[in-house]
Each structure stands twice: as structure tokens, then as C-alpha cells.
Input
Amino acid sequence: MQKIEGGVTAAKGFEAAAAAAGIKYHDRTDMALIFSEKPCKVAGAFTTNVVKAAPVKWDRNVVDSGMKAQAVIVNSGIANACTGEEGMKYCEETAKEAANVLGIDAKSVLVGSTGVIGMQLPMERVKDGIRKLAEAKKPDLESGTQAAQAIMTTDTKKKEVAVTVEISDVTVTIGGMAKGSGMIHPNMCTMLAFITTDAKISRKALQAALGEDVEDTYNMISVDGDTSTNDTVLLLANGVAGNEKIRYGTWEYEAFKTALHYVNETLAKEMAGDGEGATALFEAKVIGADTKEQAKKLAKSIVCSNLTKAAIAGHDANWGRILCAMGYSGAQFDPEKVDLYFKSEAGKLKIIENGVALNYSEEKATEILSQPKVTAIADIKEGDVEATAWGCDLTHGYININADYRS
Output
């Protein structure tokens, strides 16, 4: 596997575009298109929130039906959530307009929305934006980057990644883009991720690869503990690479899944590190666990702790908050066996051993915790299983952003 430049247009046969439709923002692009020259097999993962946005329902119907998809239309600014029958009608209108200008079947159009909940989409602006997207679409890497920028809301930077992997002596490419900064606590944030690949792969293998990997990537991040109404991950495969079809359970499947994992993990970490108001990516790694479930519960509990996140923001080695978060995680462990370390580019420092504080340097701990990426490593000494979760520090900036987000 090799990391390469680009995002959703890195894979063969895909084009992208961005447009300024003025849906909510009036100083930037706010609509994006991903288009494939050939119909794609599609896999998806969606929010478990009972309150589901109209685009989630629309896309789920497409994925569950087994229909192929050829285009994705995404808008930022308004989430099209809690919009009733009108919201579903808007998804249909979006698909029909896209189908008309792109010359494809309306049933092959996927949609995505992110932004304020409860507002209705200004459909004339959306339709105008779709026409602009159709005219602007290109297969170059810059168009993919522009699409990644257009789906941002409170994000401070675009999120995209691409890799190649050799499968049966054929180079296969996987590229992706995502947005997510607040309302991030996926159970599959407002979190959207769109992944493209030119791999030829069975629908069963495509859905299995995404479904299995979501659990170790997007579902292991948290910014604020809020699971969005719009969380969506879509994976489109057009088969243009020309490899032998990848089937579930084969070594080719494992190679594809490894590359997909890199893409998903990279996008997930970028979302966690770009949390609203954040100054640092906070990584919690639990090692020495007896089971994967135990390790995951403990790691996720650490990155979700507001007290711990605030301590990271203050560069304060308040390890008691981490042990406390582990204690209410729901996972059983012996606190008197736990070793805890802090690690960053500034070094690695053991803070507690067997549940008791060591005589460590507070100055060194502060230096380690002052870096843009900070890792807490908890060794519970029960086995050889580990899990990692990602979050961010909690600053005053988070409140400043969310106190008046709607208005």
C-alpha cells in the first residue's frame, strides 16, 4: 500500500466539483459533487440516532436496495434534518435535477447534507448549484480538493486522503473526503465521509469491508459526545481499475480492507483533531486488555471524558481523571494493576504504576501535553488485546462556536 496525493478523484473514473449556491453561507462554496463515469456498487454506514435526516433515509434506501449509484450531491449549511415529508421531497428533487443535468438515472443519485437542523433547503438555490456542479466537474485532484472544502461547516481544514494497493498485479486506488468538527460521537458527528475506489469488487465484500472497519475507525472518535442526525459514510466502487473481482474472505479482500482502513482511520483522526475549538488531537490507547470489547470501552471512555479533555487543554497531567473515566466505562479491570503513560513528540513519561502515582516531573509532563498530538497509554495487564480511540481537548472555543451556531 502507498499513500498518494488527492482525495475522491484519485481513483480512476471519478470526477468532482464545488459550487457556491448561497444555501446558508455567502462567502464560500457550499455544494459538492462526486461523479463516476460508470455506475458504482455502493456500501454505506449510517447514524444510529432515532432522529434521522432525510438524506440518511434516502441513501439507506439506495444502499439497501442494491441499486448502483453514479453521483453524490452534498450541501453544507443546512442539514435537511427534522424537515418532515418536505425534506424527503427535497432529496427527490435534488436527485431528479442531478439526473437531468448529468444524464443519469435519478435512482443512482445519492445525497448528503450538513449544517443547521430544522431549516428547510432553498431548493431553487440548490438546483442552481447542481447545474453549476455539472458544468464544473473534472477528474483532476484539485477538483477533489475543492469538493472536500465545499462540505465544511465549522471545520477549520479540508479532510482528504488517497492510497494505492496492488491486487492481482493491478493497481487499485481508494480515495476519500470527510467533514466533521462538532456533534461528533458516531455510532454507526455532524460527520460525513465519502470514499471512492476503482476496484472491481463484489457488493457483499464492499459492504462487509466498510461495515467491519467502521467499528475501529469512525466509531472510535468523539469530540463532544453528540451523535448526529446525519452521520453517513458512503463507499462507491466503479470497477474501472480492471482487477479480478475481489470477493469476501480472500487475500485480495484483506488487502483491500487494509487499504480502506488506512483511509478511514486517517479521515477519522483528522475529524477528531479538528474538533470545534480544539488545539490538540487526543489519542487514548488501551493495551494489555483481555478482549477487544473491554479495550474499546475503556479507550472510548477516556477520550469522551470532559474533565480529561479539559485537563489536556490545560496541559495538566491530571491522571486521576483518566482512571476515573476508565472506572465508569462499564468495562471490568483491576485499577491496582494499571500503568499509565503520556506520550507525544516531546517524549514519553510513565505517570502511574500499578494504580499509584510515580515521582514524575510535572514540567516534563506539561511539555509532553503541550504538543498538537497527545497520547495516553493505559496498560491494564490482563491480556494482549489493544484498542485506540481519538478525540480532542476541550477549550473555551467549543462554547464560543456552539453558543450561537444557529443564529
About this structure: The mean pLDDT is 92.
